[in-house]
Structure to design on (766 residues):
């Protein structure tokens, strides 16, 4: 009931800390150094993996003490980090999603410029650091990056008589009809959480907009090119064919068996458009040592977003995203050392082995064993270009307006034009 | 210095304004003028007030008044919560809110809950309370069962019903089993239905409170009034209509007040239950505020919505106090 109080108290608390709180000192002598580290790996194996990384780093650098706080992703991204940055008492090393959000943090002078601090690591990781760069400088280092595509259950495809992975939208539509005829929900989408449904629009936009228009929109917020409306119209046509699970408008993305991921995991739906984290999420829902999980491990495959007809986009372009870390501007120099250690080939290999994620360091690629992730990495490597998730690219404000308008198309209350109008209005308001 | 104001409180014969707050009881070497005694008493009174209420007041100021003031301050800025607070835009955030169809829809949803609560929960709760207000076997069990949902937190309630209302979930299974398969709905995914689903769950959770309050009120109604009426030939319904309901009217009015304020501030349950969706169909002003303030990092705009919500509650409370609860308050004064 005391919600307003609670919300404004948070804001006020932040500002009182701003007044009271001092900054952590920055030193590069051999005296004791304390590093605070916020990440979003609240569950094992990620949680334990980061703790091991911190322990190993502390063992090699006895003067450094690392304090880790693992915070749920949305809380971390939307509340904890913005408030901490505002307060001037930010963690030294914290989760960084890149794109428009990183740009806003750089503009306010919150991030350490790593361009000249970690030049070797940046060169070693190559193009993957692009989403963590702004105005020619690098402000964050990724540890995982992957493109998205359609995950599906081959056994259900077989049951519906589909013998090959759809490569075009027409083939995808045929597969949808075949699955419906077989009584299987063709595609699961967690529109209740907004972003999973928005990703369909992103992919249509990627196919209909040229690379130049797409990349320029990230900084100019110019959505006047008709390709953005075309993307929405393609989505409208797609939704009209009813390819999604029943009640998708209220379906969540990853919470339990009734979520879109749950429907795929339990074989109630045949496909889901999702990023490279999907196998881990499905496994998390089923539980690690269950018979269903064993079944899933041999009955899950992946194909890239099918090609659309027409459109100026690069047909091999892919949407992707990843996770990285940034150092706070006043963080001790050891923060960059830790970041360098995190992105080192050796630690990245462990990331692939222990967490089962897709590492960024090229040398760690051979440690990936999941055949789906290997295929996904190949598509990523051969892509004309990889576009960062559009909501991350545009930042929370324009990205949020975009996602809401796309969800309205899914709910049947919005139009393709509304998406462009909403984004333009939001961009004008920032 | 030793004082005895706690034990010996002799009302000051000269000045009654300090009566009750403790006056000097000790024989004085020097006679004090009444003016001096009055001043001393006043100072002591204020000392006591600040000693006992000071800490609470300080907490209240820092965690309630200051944030409210800061929210009002932020609401005049275009601010994303990260950059400097330097884009003063006057009342634009407020104009934007009332010009946004999604905000107006959220506001309408709050009003929907306010009026449906009064229209549906009140008569149902009253009827149940009147029926339960008699002796029968298992009465306390029934009372406890009715009150049980109220004990659950809103989050638990939301998660529980979220599972029940899933497509092909338990509710649909029951509907199918009793042969009403055609009545199956997308309880949460249908934009026209979702607020009714939300309202149903709210009623399930909160009607127990209304019933318990009304029962408490009914137990305070003197038995002899009811007996006298019965002896005079009044029917059961006449006893309720003429005696019980009028006598628990103050309780009903207080419940209505709590219900209205709760409906205006509705957040937790809706947020967990539907996230305000699908496509904003079940947003309340509070979930709308959270979405814009935090999810979209528009702290300035979110603050403006918070201020609007604050004034909505304030106006609703003030109007209700002065028009509906006035009689109850006036009675109180007369009794004194």
């Amino acid at each position: 009931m005391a919600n307003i109080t609670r919300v404004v108290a948070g804001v006020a608390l932040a500002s009182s800390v701003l007044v009271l709180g001092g900054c952590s000192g920055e030193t590069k002598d051999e005296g004791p150094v304390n590093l605070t580290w916020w990440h979003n790996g609240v569950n094992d194996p990620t949680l334990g993996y980061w703790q091991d990384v911190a322990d190993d780093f502390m063992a090699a650098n006895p003067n450094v003490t690392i304090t880790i706080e693992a915070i749920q992703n949305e809380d971390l991204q939307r509340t904890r980090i913005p408030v901490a940055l505002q307060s001037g008492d930010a963690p030294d090393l914290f989760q960084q999603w890149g794109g428009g959000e990183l740009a806003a943090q750089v503009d306010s002078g919150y991030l350490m410029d790593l361009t000249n601090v970690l030049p070797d690591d940046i060169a070693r990781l190559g193009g993957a650091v692009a989403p963590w760069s702004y105005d020619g400088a690098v402000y964050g280092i990724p540890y995982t990056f992957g493109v998205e595509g359609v995950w599906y259950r081959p056994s259900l495809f077989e049951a519906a008589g589909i013998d090959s992975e759809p490569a075009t939208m027409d083939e995808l539509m045929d597969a949808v009809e075949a699955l419906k005829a077989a009584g299987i929900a063709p595609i699961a989408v967690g529109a209740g959480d907004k972003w999973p449904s928005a990703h369909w629009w992103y992919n249509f936009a990627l196919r209909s907009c040229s690379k130049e228009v797409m990349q320029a929109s990230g900084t100019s917020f110019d959505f006047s090119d008709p390709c953005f409306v075309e993307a929405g119209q393609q989505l409208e046509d797609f939704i009209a064919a009813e390819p999604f699970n029943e009640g998708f408008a209220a379906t969540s993305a990853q919470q339990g068996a009734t979520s879109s991921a749950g429907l795929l995991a339990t074989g109630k739906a045949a496909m889901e458009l999702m990023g490279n984290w999907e196998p881990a999420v499905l496994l998390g829902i089923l539980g690690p040592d269950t018979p269903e999980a064993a079944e899933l491990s041999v009955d899950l495959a992946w194909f890239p977003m099918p090609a659309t007809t027409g459109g100026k986009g690069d047909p091999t372009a892919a949407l992707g995203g990843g996770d990285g870390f940034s150092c706070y501007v006043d963080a001790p120099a050891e923060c960059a050392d830790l970041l360098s250690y995190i992105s080192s080939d050796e630690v990245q290999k462990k990331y692939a082995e222990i967490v089962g994620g897709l590492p960024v360091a090229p040398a760690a690629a051979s440690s990936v064993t999941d055949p789906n992730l290997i295929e996904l990495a190949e598509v990523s490597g051969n892509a004309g270009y990889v576009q960062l998730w559009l909501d991350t690219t545009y930042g929370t404000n324009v990205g949020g307006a975009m996602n809401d308008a796309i969800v309205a198309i899914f709910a049947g209350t919005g139009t393709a034009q509304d998406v462009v109008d909403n984004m333009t209005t939001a961009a004008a308001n920032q | 210095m030793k004082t005895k104001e706690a034990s010996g409180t002799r009302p000051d014969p000269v000045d009654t304004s300090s009566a009750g707050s403790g006056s000097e009881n000790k024989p004085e070497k020097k006679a004090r003028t009444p003016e001096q005694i009055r001043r001393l008493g006043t100072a002591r009174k204020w000392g006591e007030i600040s000693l006992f209420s000071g800490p609470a007041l300080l907490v209240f100021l820092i965690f309630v008044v200051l944030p409210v003031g800061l929210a009002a301050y932020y609401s005049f800025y275009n601010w994303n919560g990260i950059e400097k607070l330097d884009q003063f835009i006057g009342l634009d955030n407020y104009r934007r809110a009332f010009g946004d169809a999604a905000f107006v829809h959220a506001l309408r949803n709050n009003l929907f809950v306010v009026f449906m609560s009064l229209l549906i929960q009140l008569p149902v709760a009253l009827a149940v309370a009147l029926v339960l207000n008699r002796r029968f076997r298992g009465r306390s069990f029934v009372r406890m069962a009715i009150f049980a949902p109220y004990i659950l937190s809103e989050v638990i309630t939301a998660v529980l019903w979220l599972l029940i209302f899933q497509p092909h979930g338990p509710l649909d299974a029951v509907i199918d089993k009793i042969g009403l398969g055609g009545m199956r709905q997308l309880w949460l995914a249908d934009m026209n239905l979702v607020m009714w689903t939300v309202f149903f769950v709210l009623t399930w959770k909160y009607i127990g409170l209304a019933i318990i309050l009304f029962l408490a009120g009914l137990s305070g109604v003197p038995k002899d009034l009811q007996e006298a009426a019965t002896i005079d030939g009044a029917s059961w319904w006449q006893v309720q209509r003429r005696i019980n309901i009028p006598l628990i009217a103050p309780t009903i009015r207080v419940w209505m007040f709590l219900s209205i304020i709760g409906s205006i501030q509705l957040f937790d349950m809706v947020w967990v239950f539907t996230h305000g969706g699908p496509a904003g169909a079940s947003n309340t002003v509070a979930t709308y505020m959270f979405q814009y303030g935090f999810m979209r990092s528009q702290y300035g705009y979110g603050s403006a919505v918070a201020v609007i919500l604050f004034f909505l509650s304030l106006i609703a409370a003030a109007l209700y106090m002065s028009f509906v609860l006035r009689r109850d308050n006036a009675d109180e004064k007369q009794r004194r």
User: Anything to note?
Assistant: Residues 149-319+388-428 of chain A form a domain with the D-Maltodextrin-Binding Protein; domain 2 fold (CATH 3.40.190.10). Chain A has 18 helices and twelve strands. The mean pLDDT of chain A is 87. Chain A has two domains: 27-147+320-387, 149-319+388-428.
